[in-house]
Design goal:
heterodimer; A: mainly alpha; about 0% strand; B: alpha+beta; two-stranded antiparallel sheet; 9 helices; about 15% strand
């Protein structure tokens, strides 16, 4: 049996990989500063027709769903009592904490007057309870904090070697953590579904293949599958990069649940289109019909792959299924927020170079911080001798 | 395996039941349509009277202190569409011998999507049902632009401290006993200001007085839940660029679902309690079985 206990990977922090990531991050940061100097018009491809671009559709809406690994794992591990397999929880939480923090930075760059964001949480009496975006904003702000608290034992364990205070705090967290984890399950349930509600308000401007009262449900269900898929990918990749023993027995044992979740997504979408009399759109909406079917295939095929492999699911199959789920879920969100959104004739959107580079910078920063933290703190488990991981 | 499946199904059942329980009482509550407020005011635009003189466009610029939109040729104030310097515009539709002018500005919806979207109420229906924008509550998220089915709110893309720009029915003039500038200068009373109920009656009177002149509908009477700006037209409304919306307002579906899930925060609180409870039980069970492996 591989070690159950998480340990720092160790090794030098500055390598060719981290150096490259740092460079991309800095270019992105410089462009982000420039964006504030010139305004959103000159720096982005956004317009009155397409007020939201890739920063919202990708960095926030897709990014937070990909960062649902912590949510999906907590849900599956703690609620379905797979507590024996803690090994996957910490890296999943770290990916989530980073993903949500990056999404928060993305929002700060995207909104016109970020220096007023603090007004949202404090203006309690002015809250518009009709606004799904308010719900998302409040939940995401809280969830970023909760995620870092959920992850705090990893930091306290290390600091506890030297500090009594950290040790005491660690002992307290051990007892209290359950209630933060529970919060860490309620908050994503709320705001991931609300991300569906947010774009539901586009109403007639959102194509019929995507617009439905089931949007909140579909966004919620898809983020659970995406979170699981990201954990599969992240576990595979980090075992390769850091020479860790893989922890995939739990992932295999959970594959049935995920296949079920994927099938529910496909079924609800199709049945809803039939019930609401929109079957004509299934083939009659040109490129959008094609996109719809690609999305559906990217949910259906991995579900069948996971089911077919029952009991003897190979790592390769699981990784491929996860890749498809990630692409399918990302496409579904990207399409709902951008491609299937039609503000009327005369408008077009394509991200500007600075928009793309800033997004790349955010992703680079996320990977960079992940590497630095797993090297310095006990996050990954399944240790092999640290010498194997100097790469 | 068995235990997992059982607790999974149990979890599903709990989630499903609480969601359903939360949604039931609300559907009836939220399906009530909204009505214009008692003191609602608005505008009535009549395509058969408009001569396209654009006096209203100029007057709007002046009354609202908007800079001239000379971005086309760096010389003349000639806005091409509603934008960050233009809250009101006249356009010409022309096709196969049929033509009509069209006036565009905020519709002042009875149940506005922009106000439903806005997080802390920068956009709101305020006095007389006029939808106005409060600079102190806006963070520039632009959700109003995504939500508005008429594409009315505009954003100052070139500004580093951007504002949302849209017609506010000259509420600053109304406050002082005046009327919207566009209505004041119109030489043909193609656009008139008044109480919402009176405008609706006037529109019906004109339709009755001139059978065959107008399309048999008043745009805004029911469209998208109703708007306080009403349109009479001799060409089909879609030719004027007005969207075909159902009689339900755009935000009504959201309200039904959002309020259904979050009524009294009961469902989230229940979910929290259930999650915490299940985990507490699982932890205890694991400790009993394995002698404590936290």
């Amino acid at each position: 049996m591989s070690g159950h206990k998480a340990t720092p990977v160790g090794g030098p922090l500055l390598t060719r990989t981290t150096g490259t990531l740092l460079a991309i991050t800095l270019v992105g940061a410089a462009l982000a500063i420039w964006r504030f100097a010139v305004g959103l018009g000159p720096s982005t491809g956004l317009s009155d027709g397409y007020p939201w671009g890739i920063w919202i559709a990708f960095d926030v809406v897709t990014g937070t769903a990909l960062a649902c690994g912590g949510y999906a794992m907590a849900l599956l591990v703690y609620i379905f009592n797979r507590g024996k397999y803690h090994g996957l929880v910490r890296p999943a939480l770290l990916t989530s904490a980073l993903g949500y923090s990056v999404a928060a930075i993305g929002i700060i760059i995207d909104v016109g007057k970020p220096w007023y964001i603090w007004r949202i949480p404090v203006s309690v009496g002015k809250w518009n309870l009709d606004s799904a975006l308010l719900e998302v904003a409040l939940c995401v702000m809280t969830y970023v904090i909760v995620l870092w608290i959920e992850l705090s034992p990893a930091f306290l364990e290390k600091w506890g070697e030297k500090s009594g205070l950290a040790r005491g705090l660690g002992a307290f967290m051990d007892k209290a953590l359950i209630w933060f984890i529970a919060l860490g399950m309620v908050l994503p349930t709320m705001h991931q579904s609300s991300l569906g509600s947010v774009i539901m308000l586009a109403g007639p401007r959102l194509h019929g293949l995507w617009h439905t009262g089931w949007l909140p449900f579909l966004f919620l269900v898809s983020c659970i599958a995406m979170g699981y898929a990201v954990v599969v990918m992240e576990s595979t990749l980090s075992s390769r990069a850091f020479g860790r023993v893989r922890e995939d027995r739990m992932l295999v044992s959970l594959s049935n649940v995920i296949a079920f979740v994927l099938l529910v997504f496909v079924a609800v979408r199709l049945i809803d289109l039939v019930v609401t009399g929109k079957t004509a759109l299934l083939f009659g909406a040109g490129g959008l019909s094609a996109l719809f079917w690609v999305e559906m295939a990217l949910f259906l095929v991995p579900a069948l792959m996971l089911l077919a492999g029952r009991g003897h699911l190979g790592i390769g199959t699981m990784f491929r299924a996860a890749l498809m789920i990630v692409f399918g879920g990302a496409m579904y969100r990207f399409d709902a927020y951008l491609v299937a959104f039609n503000p009327g004739p005369g408008w077009a959107y394509f991200p500007s170079v600075p928009e793309i580079v800033i997004t790349l910078g955010l992703v680079a920063m996320e990977i960079l911080v992940f590497i630095v933290l797993v090297k310095s703190f006990p996050i990954l488990s399944g240790t092999r001798p640290a010498a194997a991981a100097t790469k | 395996m068995d235990r997992t499946r059982r607790s999974f199904l149990k979890g599903l059942a709990i989630a499903g039941t609480s969601a359903a329980a939360a949604a039931v009482p609300v559907v009836s509550e939220a399906s009530q349509a909204r009505h214009a407020p008692e003191d609602a005011v608005g505008m009535l635009y009549d395509t058969t009277r408009c001569i396209g003189c654009k006096a209203c466009v100029v007057a709007c610029h002046e009354a609202n202190d908007l800079p001239p939109d000379n971005r086309t040729d760096a010389l003349h104030d000639q806005p091409q569409a509603l934008n960050d310097r233009t809250k009101n515009i006249i356009k010409l539709y022309k096709e196969e011998g049929r033509r009509s002018y069209m006036k565009q500005q905020c519709m002042h919806c009875i149940d506005p999507a922009c106000a439903g979207a806005c997080m802390i109420g920068a956009l709101q229906k305020r006095e007389h049902g006029i939808v106005t924008w409060d600079p102190n509550r806006c963070i520039g998220c632009r959700y109003c632009q995504v939500a508005c089915p008429y594409s009315i709110p505009k954003f100052e893309w070139e500004s580093t401290n951007p504002r949302i720009v849209k017609c506010e029915l000259c509420n600053h003039r109304i406050k002082d006993g005046g009327i919207p500038a566009c209505c004041e200068v119109c030489p043909r009373e193609a656009v008139v200001y008044g109480k919402y109920t009176e405008l609706l009656a006037e529109a019906k009177r004109r339709q009755a007085e001139h059978p065959g002149r107008y399309v048999d509908k008043i745009y805004g009477e029911h469209d998208g839940g109703g708007t306080q700006v009403l349109y009479l037209s001799h060409v089909p409304f879609e030719k004027l660029g007005l969207p075909t919306l159902g009689e339900k307002s755009v935000p009504s579906l959201n309200r039904t679902i959002q309020h259904g899930i979050y009524k009294g925060m009961i469902a989230p609180a229940a979910l929290y309690a259930v999650m915490g409870g299940v985990m507490l039980r699982n932890r205890k069970k694991n400790r009993d079985e394995e002698g404590g492996d936290a």
